[in-house]
User: What shape does this take?
Amino acid sequence: MLSVNTNMGAMAALQFLNQTQSDLQTTQSHINSGLKVASATDNGAVYAIAQNMRGNVAGYQAVSDSLNRGISTVDVAISAGQSISDLLNELKGKALAASDSSLDTASRNALNADFTALRDQITTIVQNASFNGVNLVDGSTANYQALASSDGTKKITAAGQTLKLSGTVVTIKTTSTISTQSKASTMVATINSSIQNINASLAKLASGVKKFQIQGDFVSKLVDTLNAGIGNLVDADMATESAKLQSLQVKQQLGVQALAIANQAPSITLSLFH
Assistant: This one.
């Protein structure tokens, strides 16, 4: 039936052209953003999964920061412990030299002055061995905890050590001297014990930082895996989108031509009146 009021061919051609236009806009959006799922309207289920994974990534980035702070904090403590261990070795040398009964008074006084200066340096090191307000060698922090999971429920602990004078590790008193041969001889044994103790404390600190480092490496790999998973869910395949774009552009041109042809159909009725 020929009708000037209803043109079914043009209506059908317009529907197909509108659909092509819509698909073309979607493809262009994918190319512009690089995402095939940029919002919940693109694919609600996939978007929700990706958002949950993004939340986990954000959480693990906070975990990584916490672990890095922990590593730095323990590293400072280890540096302090190593410095104190070196000082103890020097103190041992001074005490051993002063234990010689044949030493004259002037030499003994000089050794004692060096000894007390080195002894007091231990206190200075302990007091300044802080990172981000945390000191793991002055006895103020029994345990340092860092985040280990993205929900904050799991933590990793590094034990603090008390390395100050007159403690259970460094047993040298704050008033200890080697001013006499007897004191010097006794001090050698005290320092030997302190050296063994501090080496054990350093081992414990090293174990703590190792735990932080291992967890940090794991978190870094986990974040990379999660980001790859998110990409697999929402990233657009640019090669596919490029091919689709060219196809839709051709369909768009053909659709415009089909609509133009369909719109010419009513004019055929004019030939019936000649």
Observations:
- Strands lie at 130-131, 134-135, 143-147, 155-159.
- Residues 100 and 112 are 13 Å apart (CA to CA).
- The radius of gyration is 39 Å.
- The mean pLDDT is 89.
